[in-house]
Specification:
The chain is an alpha/beta fold. The protein has three domains: 44 residues, 434 Repressor (Amino-terminal Domain); 124 residues, 3-Layer(aba) Sandwich (Rossmann fold); 131 residues, Rossmann fold (3-Layer(aba) Sandwich). It contains 13 helices and twelve strands. β3, α7 and β4 form a beta-alpha-beta unit. It is elongated.
């Protein structure tokens, strides 16, 4: 059975409130009594309840992190940045995996509120007003990472997805490609709301290339989805000159479908991904990508949440980090 604060008080011969004062450094305690309490804590291995402690100190050392898919390579790199900077500021991470489900997001927001977390970093494919409203009602400092975060008056981190998509589409156009497929890995209700789609469409328009809707395809962020989409294109004989996928894993699936059908990459079809997760440079041919500074996004989000927790001013609400076009073997 775990040692309780009551056990520590009894063994040290003091009151529970005295033990609490020693742990939280909230009120003066004589050095002899402090030493005795700390000795018992060390001997018993007692660990204070973080929720109970936060009620006394009015501040916990836990940051809640809500993510859509913990198995995602993007989320993994993001968590590395969040965890490392959190540790630097002596914050622990409470991780919640929603599988991209709105109801789970709301459930976890309420859970984090009950745990008295100091702040929340909310990662989502698509932010929705009920989730934002619930976090604001809880009065917990929050930072968001999502493609549509700039549509709300919240603190958020991201890149210029419109410009990134525009740059990659132009890259293919400058290589003489006209039949460019766009594989979406997002879940926006309306494609016209997608910044990545807008950038792709704008680049085609400026080059005088007619948009071919049959080459704008929707999937999820998995390589299985990318494989199915491209295999269907091959079966229809609708093979593009280039494929721009809005996630690395989607691009890997597309690449495998082409290679399994003996279509050479990049000789016959060029491919590009989005994010630059570890898999992009590991696969052969290695992937040309739009590189998001994923680790930095997590690190900056954590630095901002710590500032908000400490009531320090944060001048910018929407922080745009630079993206890079990385050319590799697939193009």
């Amino acid at each position: 059975m775990a040692v309780t604060i009551k056990d520590v008080a009894k063994m040290a011969g003091v009151s529970i409130s005295t033990v609490s004062r020693v742990i939280n450094n909230s009120k003066p305690v004589s050095s002899d009594i402090r030493d005795q309490v700390l000795k018992v804590i060390k001997e018993t291995g007692y660990v204070p309840n973080p929720v109970a402690r936060s009620l006394v100190t009015k501040k916990s050392n836990i940051i809640g992190v809500i993510v859509p898919d913990i198995s995602s390579l993007f989320v993994g790199d993001l968590l590395s940045g969040i965890e490392e900077i959190g540790r630097m500021y002596e914050y622990d991470i409470f991780l919640c995996n929603t599988y991209g489900e709105s109801e789970r997001e709301l459930k976890y927001i309420n859970l984090l509120k009950s745990k008295a977390v100091a702040g929340i970093i909310f990662v989502s494919e698509k932010l929705e007003k009920p989730q934002i409203d619930l976090i604001e009602q809880s009065q917990i400092p929050s930072v968001y990472i999502s493609k549509n975060a700039k549509d709300f008056d919240v603190y958020s981190i991201g890149i210029d997805h419109y410009k990134a998509s525009y740059d990659m589409t132009n890259y293919f156009i400058n290589k003489g490609k006209k039949k460019i497929a766009f594989l979406r890995a997002s879940i926006e209700d309306n494609i016209e709301d997608s910044e990545r789609y807008k950038g792709y469409k704008r680049a085609l328009e400026e080059a005088g290339i007619t948009l071919d809707r049959s080459l704008v395809l929707q999937g999820d962020s998995t390589n299985e989805s990318g494989y199915r989409i491209v295999e269907a294109l091959i079966e229809k004989g609708n093979i593009p000159e280039a494929i721009f996928a809005s996630s690395d894993e989607l691009a890997v699936g597309a690449l495998n479908a082409l290679l399994d059908n003996r279509i050479s990459v990049p000789k016959n079809v060029s491919i590009a991904g989005y994010d630059d997760t570890r898999i992009a440079s590991m696969i052969r041919p290695s992937l040309t990508v739009i590189k998001q500074p994923i680790y930095d996004m997590g690190a900056v989000a954590t630095r901002i949440i710590v500032k908000l927790i400490d009531n320090h001013e944060v001048e910018e609400k929407y922080i745009i980090l630079p993206h890079t076009l990385v050319e590799r073997q697939s193009s």
